[in-house]
Structure formats: structure tokens, C-alpha cells
Amino acid sequence: MWPSPNGTIRNILGGTVFREPIICKSIPRLVPGWTRAIVIGRHAFADQYRCQDLQINGPGKVELIYTPADGTKPNVMEVYNFEGKTASGGVALSMYNTTESITGFAYCCFEYALSKKWPLYLSTKNTILKQYDGRFKDVF
Which InterPro entries match (predicted)? Predict the structure, then answer.
């Protein structure tokens, strides 16, 4: 399968993609009361664009392993054990991001909001991905 062209472009950019609507006076808005555009800033590095996914075809265990460069003991987390009713398999996914990239994303978002004199809101779901989305909240 060919890699996603959008994902390839985002990885090359390695930063933030802003989606701002084009407003034309002659085209009516879907929500007439809105007078200002809503702009979405999307982090364009890693996440699902550089993830590894895997089809599981039978019983077995999926683990996430972090091996420190200093030689200390690896941190091994069991993600899921395909056994019993789920022994026929399924799918697994692993993704990452870097603090440097998240910081760059935050910087771009603040810079964009300040240049437009607009408020900035970060939307995240850190109740599900406590460490992953929590890192975005911590950096912002």
C-alpha cells in the first residue's frame, strides 16, 4: 500500500498546518450569526502519520517496550493479550511524538493567534490518553 500523500507532506513540513476558511461575501455562511472564522491548527508531525500498525492473526501478546539508551532496565507494558474469545486476532497500533515537536506546535499556535489577535483554545482528550495528550496540555 502507498503511504498517504497528505501524511507525507505533513511529515516533510514537520510543523503545524492551519486550516482557515475562505470567506466570500457573495456566498452565504452555513451559520449566519458567525462573524469570525474558526481556524484549526493541526499538529503535522508523527502521531498517526509515523505510527506503526499491525494486523494480528492469532493468539499472542502485544507489548510496548521502551529501552533506555543508558542501559538501564527496559520498561515493558502489556498492551493486549489476544487469547480466549479474542484469539482470532485483531489490530494493534503504536505512535509517538517528541517534546520538541509539541513545543514547536504550541509556539506556532500562539504566534498565529497573536498575529490575528484571536483567542487560542487547545482541545485534547487526556481522559483517554493521559500521558500522550497530557504532554500536549503540559507544554501548552
Answer: Isocitrate_DH_NADP (IPR004790), IsoPropMal-DH-like_dom (IPR024084)
Q: What is the DSSP letter of 25?
A: T
Q: What is the CA radius of gyration of the chain?
A: 20
pLDDT band at 69 (very low <50, low <70, confident <90, very high): very high
Q: Which residue has the higher pLDDT, 29 or 79?
A: 79
Of all helices (H) and strands (E), which one includes residue 111?
helix 99-116
3-state secondary structure of 101: helix
Q: What is the largest CA-CA distance in the chain?
A: 64
Q: How far is CA 65 from the centre of its chain?
A: 20
Contact 53, 7 (CB under 8 A): no
Burial of 132 (0-12, 13-18, 19+ CB in 10 A): middle
Cβ pair 16, 41 in contact under 8 A: yes
Q: Is the distance from CB of 56 to CB of 92 less than 8 angstroms? A: yes
- Residues 6 or more apart whose Cβ sits within 8 Å of residue 113: 119, 120
CA gap 56, 87 in Å, rounded: 9
